[in-house]
Structures are given as C-alpha cells and as structure tokens.
C-alpha cells in the first residue's frame, strides 16, 4: 500500500497576520515538523500543497511542491488538486502546516487503521472534536471531492459526510493537535 504525505500550506493565516507555517519553534519552521513526522514513517512522496506566492519560501529538498493556480480555495480543493496530480498513492496522509507538536508516533498510529478496506477516511478525534486536517484520505475520495467542488462545497466536513470514515479517539494529552492560530498562541507556546 502506497501512502503519500501531504502538508497543507496554502492558507491565508488571516488570524495570525502573516504565513505562520514559516514561524520558527526550536530552530525549525512549523511546516517542517509535519514533514518530519511523515518522513519518519517512510511516506512517499511528501508533498507541500501551496500557492505560487508562498512556494519560493519553502525548503523543498526531498519534497514535491504542488502549486495551486487558484489561491486560498481551502483544504478540500488542495486535497483534490494533489490527488489529481499524483495518481500513484492509495492513501494521502494530510497534515496542516501549523502543528509543531505533531509526532511521528501519531502518524504511525493513524496508519495502522488503513488496513481495513471499508473506510475511505481515517479521522482523529480529541475531546469529541474531529481533526480532518490531520487525517488520512483514500484515493476513492477523489470522485466525491470533485462532485462537492463542482457544487461549490469546499469543507472537509462535506467530504466526510459523503464517504464512510472511521473516527480514532486520542486522549487529551496527545500534543499533535495543538495548532497555532494567533501570535498570542505562539507567545504562550514559547513561555510554556
């Protein structure tokens, strides 16, 4: 089974005020933590989904850049674009670019659930909150994603409502879900 790693890094970061994926935490850009968690599980290819305005800022060594021609269309559009551009993988492990605490162990645990052929997505849940931007999507999601985008439906929730997916519960101590939405969040992180 072939699993690609996809880092979603084309957003506006409107609440943050600048592209937060390039902020440094312990000397490493936020997005690099997502790449490392995927690489440590031997996922290939590793793809950064972004736009032409941001693409030149990434260290693209040993990763593929998937550049969306239309900016800021959302994560469903980005996943659809990657799936159409990269036909080989069976599964796509999606991670957002603003989760500097994501772990390779989290990625490893999630991958174990791809062995059941019935599910088309594997979505982690923490404190009853689903995290569709740290999830696995089977190639069979391409057709429903295409259908939704043609109807101008752009949410990952809409995709999950149209496929059979499995929720995986994680305890509240799991750090992988901590994302940075504002400079004050980042300031708290640095103090912590």
Automatic annotation (TrEMBL):
Its cofactor is Mg(2+). GO terms for biological process: Mo-molybdopterin cofactor biosynthetic process. It comes from the Bacteria. Residues 5-155 form the MobA-like NTP transferase domain. It holds the Pfam family NTP_transf_3. GO terms for molecular function: GTP binding; metal ion binding; molybdenum cofactor guanylyltransferase activity. Belongs to the MobA family. The N-terminal domain determines nucleotide recognition and specific binding, while the C-terminal domain determines the specific binding to the target protein. HAMAP family: MobA. Transfers a GMP moiety from GTP to Mo-molybdopterin (Mo-MPT) cofactor (Moco or molybdenum cofactor) to form Mo-molybdopterin guanine dinucleotide (Mo-MGD) cofactor. This is Probable molybdenum cofactor guanylyltransferase. It comes from Domibacillus mangrovi.
């Amino acid at each position: 089974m072939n699993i690609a790693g996809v880092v979603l890094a084309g957003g506006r970061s409107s609440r943050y005020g600048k592209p937060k994926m390039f902020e440094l935490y312990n000397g490493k850009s936020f997005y690099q933590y997502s790449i490392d968690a995927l690489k440590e599980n031997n996922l290939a290819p590793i793809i950064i989904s972004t736009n032409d305005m941001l693409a030149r800022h990434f260290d693209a060594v040993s990763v593929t850049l998937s550049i969306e021609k239309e900016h800021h269309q959302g994560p469903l559009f980005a996943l659809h674009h990657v799936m159409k551009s990269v036909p080989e993988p069976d599964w796509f492990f999606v991670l957002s670019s603003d989760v500097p605490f994501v772990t390779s162990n989290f990625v490893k645990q999630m991958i174990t659930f791809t062995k059941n052929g019935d599910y088309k997505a594997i979505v982690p849940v923490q404190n009853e909150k689903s995290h569709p931007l740290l999830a696995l999507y089977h190639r069979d999601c391409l057709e429903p994603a295409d259908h939704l985008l043609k109807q101008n439906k752009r949410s990952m929730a809409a995709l999950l409502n149209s496929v059979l997916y499995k929720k995986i519960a994680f305890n509240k101590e799991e750090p992988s879900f901590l994302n940075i939405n504002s400079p004050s969040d980042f300031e708290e992180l640095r103090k912590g």
